[in-house]
Specification:
Elements: H1 3-32, H2 41-57, H3 61-69, H4 72-93, H5 100-114, H6 118-130, H7 135-160, H8 172-188, H9 209-233, H10 236-243, H11 248-259, H12 261-276, H13 278-299, H14 303-312, H15 316-326, H16 329-362, H17 364-380
Helix pairs in contact: 1-4, 1-6, 1-7, 1-8, 1-10, 1-11, 2-5, 2-16, 3-4, 4-5, 4-6, 4-8, 7-11, 9-16, 9-17, 12-13, 12-14, 13-14, 13-15, 13-17, 15-16, 16-17
Length: 398
């Protein structure tokens, strides 16, 4: 398979993977929060946390399937096909009657496992294809992920609200799309190949006390920030529906516009961080996201939802670049692993459950305001991080 075809398939896979991940929180949650389903905020938070947790716990399956299937492209294809089972189960839950809740929980489990495959396998395919010149390819590929995340809530709303009645079971259409792309990627992958990547790289030296303290600070900042962002994003479409009177039939189109801010935000903030400084931009994105959401609550200006997502979804490349700047080369991998797996993943798991718990006991608005305060605190904490001594180019898309 030539490189252009690999780029096309992985970009389409990124579009579908990130799009599939957007369907549950941005479109399904506001539907099932209302009668006849009436799922409580705490259960919605648990569902979204469970999806993130299983995505993390299932990550060892990626290298196992790469070796077993004979290639990263085949492992990516398997992930697409697993999305089919998750989305099909989600569609079936709306016809499951008294078994609705256990069936939708099963779909969350399947979707969480499915979500773990794309990013490592897609990056592996492109890195193998383009080697040290993969930057442009990864940028194009990343743009497709951002577009998919923005487009899918709208596309799914067209399927669900196509007729006179609301039909959430029409999500099966996206299960079929995932199956088709997965089958195409598997067929295009060619013969089975022995994949490397199982060898042990040179282990970094043990970190000293100062570096361990720095890892702890960065991990705390990213965990707090991600708890705020993921928790708020689990409920933002419900907030827009209940408090800004955005109708269920319009919520998909509204979220598509709001989420499109990341298509602009990631490259723009990456470019600015190269000029204004990583630490400053990391702090600005956290404070900006928090203040934008608080402003949304008090002014009910929908443009602030766009600004919230602009800051909220554009921060990850900057954070990981800061780690690369602050740590010796032989310890960057270890530091990034801790910041990502404990901070970012931990925040993704804790945030929705915390937001659901707060919303249940103090109300949705007050609960999300508390989450915004957590994000604001994480932004202020960047003053405890030293200025990076050197700079690397920030990847424009993640």
């Amino acid at each position: 398979m030539n490189n252009a075809r690999k780029l096309a398939l992985t970009s389409l896979g990124h579009f579908i993977n990130d799009g599939n991940m957007a369907i549950l929180p941005y479109l399904i949650f506001p539907i099932i929060s209302k009668p006849p389903y009436q799922v409580s905020p705490i259960q919605l938070g648990v569902m979204y946390s469970l999806m993130g947790l299983l995505g993390a716990l299932a990550s060892p399956l990626v290298p196992i399937t790469i070796r077993a299937l004979g290639g990263a492209m085949r492992s990516m294809a398997l992930g697409m096909m697993l999305w089919t089972t998750g989305l099909a189960t989600l569609a079936a839950s709306f016809a499951a009657g008294p078994y609705f809740l256990p069936t939708i929980y099963l779909s969350v489990v399947l979707m969480g496992i499915s979500s773990t495959f794309y990013h490592p396998t897609g990056a592996a395919v492109l890195s193998e294809a383009y080697g040290g010149n993969a930057g442009a390819a990864l940028g194009i590929n990343g743009a497709f992920g951002s577009v998919g995340r923005a487009a899918y809530p709208y596309l799914a709303s067209l399927a669900i609200f196509a007729g006179a009645a609301i039909r959430p079971s029409n999500i099966w259409v996206f299960a079929a799309v995932s199956l088709a792309v997965g089958a195409a990627a598997f067929a295009a992958s060619g013969g089975r190949r022995g994949e490397g990547g199982g060898g042990q790289g040179r282990r970094g030296e043990p970190m000293g006390g100062k570096l361990l303290a720095l890892v702890a600070i960065l991990t705390a900042i990213t965990m707090m920030r991600n708890a705020f962002v993921q928790g708020t994003n689990g409920f933002i479409s419900i907030y827009l529906n209940q408090y800004l009177n955005v109708g269920l039939g319009s919520i998909g189109a509204t979220m598509a516009v709001v989420l499109s801010s990341a298509i602009i935000g990631q490259p723009l903030l990456g470019w600015l961080s190269d000029r204004a400084g990583r630490r400053l931009m990391a702090a600005i994105t956290s404070v900006g996201a928090s203040l934008s959401f608080i402003g949304l609550v008090y002014t009910k200006n929908l443009g602030l939802a766009f600004l919230f997502e602009f800051f909220a979804l554009s921060n990850f490349p900057v954070i990981l670049s800061i780690v690369g700047d602050l740590f010796p080369q032989n310890q960057v991998g270890s530091a990034n692993s801790i910041v990502w797996n404990v901070g970012i993943t931990g925040g993704n798991v804790i945030g929705p459950a915390l937001a659901g718990l707060l919303s249940t006991y103090v109300g949705l608005v007050s609960g999300l305001e508390m989450m915004a305060a957590l994000g604001l605190a994480s932004g202020v904490m960047w003053v405890a991080v030293p200025r990076p001594p050197k700079r690397r180019r920030v990847p424009l898309f993640m």
